[in-house]
Amino acid sequence: MRKITVIGAGTMGRGIALVCAQAGFHVIVQDIHQESLQKCKQYIDRFLETGSIEYTANLEDAVGSADLVIEAILEVMDLKKEIFKKIDQIAPREAILATNTSTMSPTEIASVTSRPDKCIALHFFNPVHKMKLIEVICGLETSEETIESAFAFGEKIGKECVKINEFPGFATSRMNCLIGNEAMFMVMEGVGSVEDIDRAMKLGLNHPMGPLELADLVGLDSRLRNMEYLHKTLGEKFRPCPILQKYVSAGWTGKKSGRGFYQYDERGNKI
């Protein structure tokens, strides 16, 4: 495995591309938006002194010779299936197709391809260059060879992999979404301030980041999509907190918009 293509130049895509380039892979980042590609390049250039990395809006150029394609687009099932169907038609027959989804079924995503045995979910965590874990989630037809290749890839980029059986939300997202959603209810109910709830989780339960700060980092719109999917698939306990829906409706999507549960300056620092 030498050539890695990352589809999507957003927060997760750029982080995945960075760690792959740092590990010595030849990386191509593809996104339909030139502005996103430019921001991705600016971000990666801050960390990467040497490395082989390209940026393109052309999907055929991006995946035509890839050994591994990692999709990191919005958490919308129809979009993921659409891009996997296209990638399947272009990528080499031996290429592995991976989704970076944090909640959705790799089996369903793989169902639109002619290679479900070579499809898998690789769930990275934000910020990718700091977080050590990759959740490896296998679809119904994912082969052992594909799983072994995924673990070898994770080791090459300095990550630890855990194998999780497919179920909505996997392991980490299921727990994390519940914790974050409960914290939002606590804010809405006046149990404590945003700052104090986060501080209590960090100091009392040894979490490195409070659940509300983490939700801002992930993006409240992304968190809402995840909660809606989990609510649909796992039931009432995952119903999104009304304050999350209200903030997203107002355009308060967290750190990337400058406002969520906290306010941020242009550099992303809390105000």
UniProtKB/TrEMBL annotation:
Keyword Oxidoreductase: yes
Keywords from the UniProt entry: NAD, Oxidoreductase
One GO-annotated biological process of the protein: fatty acid metabolic process
Coiled-coil annotated residue ranges, if any: none
Domain of life: Bacteria
Binding site for NAD(+): 8-13, 31, 75, 80, 102, 126, 256
Pathway named in the protein's UniProt entry: Lipid metabolism; butanoate metabolism
GO molecular function: 3-hydroxybutyryl-CoA dehydrogenase activity; NAD+ binding
E.C. number: 1.1.1.157
Residue numbers marked as site, Important for catalytic activity: 123
Location of the 3-hydroxyacyl-CoA dehydrogenase C-terminal domain: 169-264
Residue intervals of the 3-hydroxyacyl-CoA dehydrogenase NAD binding domain: 3-166
Enzyme class (EC, first level): oxidoreductase
Family named by the database record: Belongs to the 3-hydroxyacyl-CoA dehydrogenase family.
Name of the protein in question: 3-hydroxybutyryl-CoA dehydrogenase
